[in-house]
Amino acid sequence: MMLPTAHRRRTAARRAAFTLLEVLVVVAILVILAGVASISIFRYMEDAKVGRAKADMNTLVKTYQTYYTQNQTWPSQPAEVAPLLDQGINAFQSPWPGVTYQVTIQQQQQSDGTVIERPVAVCQPPGRPEIIVPDVNQGR
């Protein structure tokens, strides 16, 4: 039995289109994939901020050591080492808005009784543990 031409076209058109359920399933899968991808991207971005902060703080520590080598005294304020930095005083700004690096001079007693002074940079990012450079626990 032969179907009329108009009926065959309508049947073919119905098979060629997607149903609402199929479209909703595809959209749901895409939303789930985007959610998983965005979580990973944000995690990597935060890890990159920590890496940049450690590198910046390491530069500050080296700059304080350079200042001490040149002047035989530690700087009393960040503005004293700013001329040695490419970014000047802005080098003390961390990747997190409103958070700055703090550099202090710590004294450490050696086993032979001598005392060594060294600069230590500290940063407290929001919602993360404190970052300290140089990390005294790094060798453990």
Strand neighbour order, sheet with most strands: 1-2-3
If you average the pLDDT, what whole number results?
88
Total strands? 3
Number of helices: 2
Shape: rod-shaped
What's the helical proportion of residues? 40-55%
Provide the succession of SSEs: HHEEE
Strand content: 5-15%
Give me the Rg, rounded. 30 Å
Give the distance, in angstroms, between the N- and C-terminal Cα atoms: 85 Å
- Helix/strand/pairing class, anyone? alpha+beta
Domain count: 1
Low-confidence stretches: none
> Can you summarize the main beta sheet?
3 strands, antiparallel
Q: Please, could you describe this protein's structure?
A:
- There is one protein chain.
- This protein is α+β, with helices and mostly antiparallel strands and 140 residues long.
- The protein has one domain.
- It contains two helices and three strands, in the order ααβββ.
- It has helices at 5-16, 20-71; strands at 102-109, 115-123, 131-133.
- It has a three-stranded antiparallel beta sheet with strand order 1-2-3, covered by helices on one side.
- The longest helix has 52 residues, at 20-71.
- The mean pLDDT is 88.
